[in-house]
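Q: What structure does this chain adopt?
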Amino acid sequence: MRLIQGVADTPGIDFICPQHEQAGAMAADGYARTSSNLGAAIATSGPGVTNMITGVCSAYYDSVPSIFITGQVATFRMKGDTGVRQIGFQETDTIDMYKTITKYATVIYDPSKIRYELEKACHIAKSGRPGPVLIDIPDDLQRVEIDPSKLKSFKPKHEIRNKIHIDKKVEECLQFIKDAKRPVVVLGWGIRLAKAEKELMEFINKLNFPIVPTWAVADILPSNHPLMVGTFGTHGSRYANFTVQNSDLVLAIGTRLDTKATGTPVDTFARGAKKVMVDIDPHELNKFKKFGVDIDLLINADVKEFLKKINKGIPHLSKNDISKWLNQIDSWKKKYPICLPKYYKEKEVNPYVFVKELSKESKEGDIIVADTGCTIAWMMQGFEFKKGQRLYHDWNNTAMGWALPASIGASLALNKKAIICVTGDGSLQMNIQELATIVRHKLPIKIFLTDNKGHGMTRQTQDQWQKSRYFSTSVEGGLPAPDFSSIAKAYGFKVVDLNNNRDINRKIRKVLKTKGPVFCNIKIKPSHKVIPQVRFGRPNEDQTPLLSRKEFMENMIVKPLKVSKTL
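A:
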């Protein structure tokens, strides 16, 4: 209470009241991602602290710099070493709960240390591999009058990197580039975190290698860029997976190459390729030993520093002619499009048609925020990016309900800019109360709800392993079926219903052109799936629905693997 009063009394600072602490943390996360500045959220002890955890996890796993400030019971009401569970009302051991999902978490016991700890926390949040931090402030210390100018400040130590080590690694990488005949460059979120977009464009233009982005940077180039292949991995495109899996060099920059990218088992990933991995976190580089996978060249470096150095060496290389390889990739793209022509002939809304037409109707520079499940998979497979567009998602925690509050944070960070929010019916339910926050602040957020009456991604897994018994994932299996249009109207939204393919363009256009908050309820058949998708146990190049073995073999350059017939 006293922290919020302090914020309210401070000129130049404004605050937003979310309806739930989880949403507050997620909005701070969205604010940080779009502003390239710290996001900040406040919560009380007890249920306030525990409610906020999911949002903090989203920031932590995606390395988003943010600061969370929590209230705590007065120091004279703390349990200390008494062994009891609680003394002060709503007393909760916040630090122990948060220390594994923050870069730094501390409680203030001495009011004279508040400046030092705040400055230290902010520095830690933004330095190295970024991430969230937390300061826990007891109630009695919140009331103490201080003069910040007289308090001790935090002075960070200068970090010295081993430049000789990096120079040697870059030379080795240049040799791999020189020898490659079927190369790919895999780009990750680290490009954005390092603010290395300028260096990356120089790198792409000089190298002329095909680009396969992870989901987090699918918007790094326009989709029509001649070197942009598309997203790969377990829920990627068939053409991008053929590209990666048949390559002879994978140059992974700023990506941790998680199992969504590599598939499982990990040793099936690009098994005929030399692999180079650049990451600022040594733990991410060393984790592959656990899987028995050898990465040919590990480079522990800041992405921007690496790109600056390698850009100097590329012009002096005599590389192989890879025009045949680029033509092969182009052939795969034409042969295996994501949105098939037959989808347009369907009467009801096809999600891939919706995504493709949304990308057509959107403008350069638009901000899109998407939720998890089928929604994010359809978007990442089928959305065709224009110049300057950005798509945000909590890529690694991928929490249901993240998109709505993150859209709020994004809009506020960008001076109430219009945001395109694409969410599913399951995800919307997790933070549906934030519709009130959007209307309260008149934020021009355009919500597109893909209502497929349940949890489509999990249903697809149930198709594969549970004989299509949709327990807890369908209306028949126990879920409710709310009238979302009526709910949105009750909150004060303008509502548009979209029920068939022929109205997609007209109604998308109407939503995007209407001023203020708009809610578009899209009816999608529960049977629609993410196509293609890699079934567990198969390598990334062998996606479901399976190609005939003859057609599959015709696409393989490296030796195919033998896979159990039960998969």
